[in-house]
Structure formats: C-alpha cells, structure tokens
Amino acid sequence: MQVSSLNEVKIYSLSAGRSLPEWLSDRKKRALQKKDVDIRRRIELIQDFEMPTVSTKIKVSRDGQYIMAVGTYKPRIRCFDTYQLSQKFERCLDSEVVTFEILSDDYSKIVFLQCGRFVEFHSQHGHYYRTRIPKFGRDFSYHYPSCDLYFVGASSEVYRLNLEQGRFLNSLQTEAAESNVCDINPVHFLFALGTAEGKVECWDPRMRARVGLLDCALSSVTADTEIEGLPSISALKFDGALNVAVGTSTGQVLLYDLRSSNPLIVKDHHYGLPIKSVQFQPQLDLIVSADSRIIKMWNKDTGKIFTSMEPEHDINDVCLYPNSGVLMTANEAPKMNIYYIPVLGPAPKWCSFLDNLTEELEENPESTVYDDYKFVTRKDLENLGLAHLIGSSLLRAYMHGFFVDIRLYHKAKMMANPFAYEEYRREKIRQKIEETRAQRVQLKKLPKVNKELALKLIEEESEGQQATRKRKQKNLPSLLKDDRFKVMFENPDFQVDEQSEEFRLLNPLVSKISEKRKRELKILEELETQEQEEVEEAEGKASGAESSESSDDEKGWVEEVRKQRKLLRQEEKVKRKERFKEDQQTVLKPQFFEIKEGEEFRSFKDSAKKQKLMKKTLGDRLKLEEKLGTLNVSDTTVGSKQATFKLKKSEQQRKQQEAEKQHRQERKSLRRSASHLRSKRGRGRLFP
C-alpha cells in the first residue's frame, strides 16, 4: 500500500502493487505470495477489480452495494458486490459504451448509450431491449418525475425517450450545433446541457423551453490563463438547487450561481487538457475536478488547493463513494485505482478495517529512505562550502538538517577535500591486498594428466605475475583455468610423449627459451632499481652480456640438438637390426584365397601395366588408345578436333556378348530349317 502526502493530507493507494493473472490457480497464487514480499503486502480491497484492457466509466448504485464499470476489450460491463468484495457478474456488449446510467437503487435497471447510436436497456437477468437514436450520442440524463431520457450529441436537437409510454417524444431544439454533456438538477429538475461553442443552456422540462444561457467561453478567459482555440464544455455537474460546476476543454473549472451569469470562481488545472469529471464533496465543501493527468481537490469558496493526485495512467472517469473517503478512478490501464483519504470521511461499512489499518500506520510511521539524496547538517554544509544554498530548491529542509542531491554532494566533497592522504593510502593498501589474493594460484592437487606441464605453467604464471605487478600490465589468462584447455589435463589421449622424436628435438629449445626469459627478467629488475645515469651504462653492459650469453646459448643448443639426433639415429639402427633378425626367423607359408562367384582372377601384371600407363604423359596414352581402337580423333569443319572414346569391355562382358551372338545364330539356323520343311510339305500336297 502506497502512502503519499500533500498539504498534510495522506492518500492511501489501495490498488498499488502487481496484480496476479486470472488464469493462475489458487495454489500458484499462494506460492507466489510466499515468495514475493510485494504481493504479500498488497491490499486487494475488491477481488479482480480490473478490466481486460481499459476502463472508461465507473459508478456506484444508490444503495451503495454495487460498483459498476464499463470498459474494453471486448466491450463489457462488470458489476462488483461490495458485501462480498468480489465480482457479481459480467456481461459482454456488441459495441463500446459511451456512458451509462443506473436507474434503480441496485443493478436491476441499467441504460447504456453505445457508439453505434444504440441505446440498450438491461434488467436484472440481462439484456432487455435495444433501440436507436437519429444521431450519435455523447451523453444522456434521466428525468425521474416524467421517466424521460434526454440524449445529447452530434446534433442541435435533444432527443427525448419516454420509458413509461415506450416511445420518442418531441425533441428540444437548441441554438448549439453540437452538445457534449448534460445534467439534471436533483432538487428542481432543471435540465442543462453544455455545447461545443462553450455555452450552457438551461431548459425547464415542464415548459419544454429554454430559461437561461451561460457563456462560459468568455468567462474562462482570465489574465492568468493561456487559451488556444474556443473552449467547449466537457463536464457539467449540479450541486444543490443553485450551484453548477462547468469544466472546459482547455482545462478550466468554473463555479456558477444560477442567479448570476458571472462565475463565482475560475480554477485552472494548468495542463491544457479537457476536464473529464467534476464532483462535489459536501462534507468539506470541496470540488473534485479531474483531467486525464491529475485529480485536484479544492475549496469551492476560496479556490485553495486541498490536495491532488497524479496516477500512473491517464484518467477516464472519477467516482466518489457516497459519505466516505473512498475515491475510485477508471483509467487507461487494466487495473482500476482505489484511493482512501481519511480526511474526506470514514471508510464504508464493507471495508471498515481500513480505518484501523491507517491508524496503526500513523501510530508507527516507517522511516523513509532516500537513495538519491544525502542527509547533511548545517555544519556539513559549511564544511563543504554549500551554506549559501540554504533556502534554494537544491536543499530540502528535514528535521535538524537538509536533503541534498547525492551527485551535488560528491562534487562538493571532491572540491572541498580533493586529496585526503590517509583515506587514499588505506584504500590503496586494501586494493593491493585484494589483487594479490585474486591473482594467487590455488591448486590443491596436480592434474592426473600432464603433471610436468602443469608445474611448468604454474612457475611461469607466478613469474609473469611478479613482472606484471612491477610493470603495471594486465595479467594474461591461465591455461589451467581456461575451459578450452581443460581436456588437456583430464583426457589421457593428450598426454605428452617425452620419448617421441619431436619432443626430444624441441625440448632443448623450450628449456633454453625459459632460461633466457628468466635472465631477461633479472636484468630488467636490476635496470629499474638504478638511477638514470647509471641506467644507460647498465643498458650497454647488459646488451653486451646478453649478446655473448645469447651466442653461448645458441652454441649449447646446437650441440644438444646434434646429440639428440645422434641418439635417434643409433636407436633407429638398433630397431632395424631387430626387425631384420625377426624377418630371418619367420618362415613364409603359402596362403590360399577363395574367389567369389561372378568375379575373375586378375594377375598382378594388370596392376603393373596400369601403373606404367599412369606414369606416361597424356599424349603417349592417347597414341596407345588409338592403336587399340578405343580412341578416334577426327577434324571438324570449323577447324577443331573431335575425340571419341570407346569403353573397354571386360572379359565377362565379352563372353556374354559371344554367347548372345551364338544364340542368335542358332535361332536363325532353326528358323531357316523350319521354313525349308514347310515349303517341302506344301509342294507334296499340290503335286501328289
């Protein structure tokens, strides 16, 4: 529950906090409440007091038991029962609702004015009747003595629908081109409508004639106000028999006495936004006016601001619960806001626990923590040199000191005390200790694979860290800590073979490079400790020594490589002799192989011929192919040459072709013998 205070008026927001989705089960909601502190501390005054997307209008029934709200999307109305603190019912509609009116004391009779010029009537069970008006409507009011509905909208006429007779009556003809709002006085039932030209026309329903006209556009213009365009009437509300409050589209609220054409008071919201709602609070003689950005409460006699509220989302409608301090808003968000202001009145019967809750909060106020501000005393301001800011907007007085912006405090502290040596020294020592702790390699056990390589890396890393500390360079990442090389110290397949030829030839080089690196580091350390004059001489000596040492290193390395090569040659000779002895001892025996069916045995001469052909050039191979008859080269008419190749046939294909040829010849000989016999028989019959 959020608490705000303005002019010592505390406002409790009862709908603050996150709302849980409807599709969550009760078990999951309870689990979330246990985990999340914000959800646990929130106050849900009415369960699911929200709309799917946007809420446009909100009203309370005359008996105070039901709260009704309309919104989108889809267009719908929701009725909430205050006795049960939950939703009573929900009805979806065909089109969006412009405004609605509760005709009965409870929810049994409701009238909706919809966007598509439709007027829809609902009873206790649901939809009852639907009709249509000639022009698009913007507002309507119900005249209780005659049971007439007065509709105003995009027309100069005021349409009257009698609910007792069930028919339209003669409309009222006004001088305005369009009308935006209307209201009926609850005492003498005077009908008033606000026009787009900034005028308020008053009509007597008994005479069906206009009895008065107020020009609010001229009266809203004062010396302090800046108006762009003609102010039109956007809100209208009667208070008692004589007072009426008018809201304009330019953000002014005018309070009139019906006996005078001049306003009693003009209140400007200073936002330039149309006034959405005007309500009267009779207990404290306040007027509650709201535009889409702010709700202001001010005294209707003096115009002095009582308090104000700025919700997070744009406001569409405001509703005061009768004879209490509860205020509800319909806004451009799914959740509808509920505020409790104890100064306006007590909590309603159905939420009387709010009084006890707010009293406990006032008895035990929580200390407020300001993250972006620093609390300083007057003495601190004098030390920082900011005493001249007392009384300005940069300092906010609080108790025995002031709140100052944390950024301004840091800047002033740096200017007043630019270098505090003791604090600086302690901070540097602490940083050095943390760096040494972080850079320390802590290995409890060496890896199972490549232990010698791991020890070597640890030694090199420790030496490199010492050098980087003195040179103030960045530390390089360690291979032992790098996940990319993790397998090298875990998988036995990556074990370094020290007996291999490559390792034995490279190992002298690696060892010499490491020794050379150590000598260079020692020389650099000595050079840094000496003075500038001695540094030049030391550099010359170091360079000569280094060159002599490097030449000695090269000679030693060459000798070691030669020794390793001699050893490798001797080992190879020994291995060859052993192989030769093994070959002499082994007795070769003939091996027989079985050829699969359908395959032919080819001699080793064929493979030898193929190898000889592959060694020959392309020209020689082409000449050989021409001799064998598998290649035919001919000149074309264009001048180029054309080569045609014939695939060589295997012996199996040749045998198959010969068998087919023999079979064809046998069939031909059989056909000839059969035809010869037929001819002989025919001759014997004709010539017996």
From TrEMBL:
Keyword Repeat belongs to the record: yes
Keywords, comma-separated and alphabetical: Coiled coil, Nucleus, Repeat, WD repeat
Gene responsible for this protein: Nol10
Pfam family, one: NUC153
GO biological process: maturation of SSU-rRNA from tricistronic rRNA transcript (SSU-rRNA, 5.8S rRNA, LSU-rRNA)
Annotated GO CC locations: 90S preribosome; small-subunit processome
Domain NUC153: 482-508
Location of the Nucleolar protein 10-like second domain: 369-417
InterPro entries recorded: Beta-prop_NOL10_N (IPR056551), NOL10/Enp2 (IPR040382), NOL10_2nd (IPR056550), NUC153 (IPR012580), WD40/YVTN_repeat-like_dom_sf (IPR015943), WD40_repeat_dom_sf (IPR036322)
Stretches assigned to the Nucleolar protein 10-like N-terminal domain: 1-364
Localisation: Nucleus, Nucleolus
Protein name: Nucleolar protein 10
Sequence ranges of Basic residues compositional bias: 664-688
Entry's family note: Belongs to the WD repeat NOL10/ENP2 family.
Residue ranges, annotated region (Disordered): 530-558, 639-688
Record bears the keyword Nucleus: yes
Biased composition (Basic and acidic residues): 648-663
